[in-house]
């Protein structure tokens, strides 16, 4: 669990690293604020005068882990990031992740130079998208309700397995963990009175982030996802929220769906897969 002071230090370092740059670091603040005690996911480097000048974090998503970090501009080329990265990779090896992904802003020259020194390959680009107000018509044949029963949880596990590549055990552990964090709203998507999908919403002040959006494969292609997304967007918009989500650039179907509902890309993150 990160302390209030540590979170302040990370935020301050992020501000310094992004100053004058045309990018944002994806530090997954929703996860940083809800770290579980006793887990080694965050690595710090302080200068001789006690200033945080290097930070790197692991973000666990079941069978895979994402890594993102930063170093103060005045303290780069001193081996700080390499040292933090080495410690993080050791933890990853001990946990035996199936996939290790390195994450950096798509236009970060420093990050790409570092990746060139590693045995890794470009995996994909992810767009961060924001909703811009557009007319949406709510349709009645799709219903969204809170996820509350054991059957709902089982469906969410099933969807993580068939849509996101989790093993069943990993999906169970992941869903139990994000529920313990208690900072997201979990919803089930129903079509013709049958539970067919899921979606989560996380709130951070005036922002709402949409995660884990999935429809069972046998119900895809029926327009259910578009109708469900409209309902969520309209509900959050009525509460005055700014609405965001992430999508892989290679997922052309999802990208078109989000754009048709009023979402526009505003940042891009590149992912590189470590060879193991």
From TrEMBL:
Regions that span the bilayer:
none
UniProt entry keywords in alphabetical sequence: Acyltransferase, Transferase
Q: Name one GO molecular function term.
A: acyltransferase activity, transferring groups other than amino-acyl groups
- InterPro entries in the record: Acyl_CoA_acyltransferase (IPR016181), GNAT_dom (IPR000182), YpeA/RimI_acetyltransf (IPR050680)
Q: Supply the name of the protein.
A: N-acetyltransferase
Which residue intervals define the domain N-acetyltransferase in the entry?
2-143, 142-276
Q: Which domain of life is it from?
A: Bacteria
